[in-house]
Design a protein that fits this description.
There is one protein chain. The longest helix has 22 residues. The chain has a single domain, classed as P-loop containing nucleotide triphosphate hydrolases (Rossmann fold, 3-Layer(aba) Sandwich). It is of the alpha/beta class. Helix content is 37%, strand content 17%. The structure holds adenosine-5'-triphosphate and magnesium ion.
Length: 175
Amino acid sequence: MTSDLEGQIIVYTGNGKGKTTAALGLAWRAMGRDLGVAVVQFIKGKWKTGERIFAERLPALTFLVMGRGFTWDSDDLSRDRRAAEAAWTEARALILAGQHAVVVLDELTYVLNYGFVPSDVVIETLRARPRHVTVAITGRNAPDELLAVADVITEMRSVRHPFEKGKKAVPGIDY
Ligand code: ATP
Ligand code: MG
């Protein structure tokens, strides 16, 4: 059962493509083992992604997307901050409850790098989590203090990407 497992802190960072898809691959694998999985996406929930559409068909998967705020408003950043804080509050509760053996915090690094949620608050939660819970965090420029507590760190290095030739993001491949 899940309580026999020793959870890990996994960080997928770097500029290359593959961070979110690696975390979702981990979620896929864990669900195959009947582990509880939660995914929290710390990106504005305006755009539908392929993973979000598919998650709606998977009742066993807990899938949360950060609220989007109203971009027409001049104090957009404070709305983003509040949306990030709200998403973090939900993520924190999921991690501490221990009902999900795998919790993915997708694009959390942006929230940390903007200072919307302090890194030490996140690290304190990671330290306090039930032993069996694995937390996978994605996003570019993972802060050093987060890397310091990680068990697994994988840096995606971009060697080539169609974006460099001006190609647009492709549905089903990039989002
Ligand atoms: P993916 O979701 O495909 O695994 P990612 O999570 O590693 O990518 P992010 O940094 O979250 O990438 O960037 C989000 C978007 O940018 C995605 O649409 C992704 O395909 C695209 N992208 C990823 N790597 C690159 C790159 N090296 N150059 C340009 N665009 C990229
Ligand atoms: Mg990503």
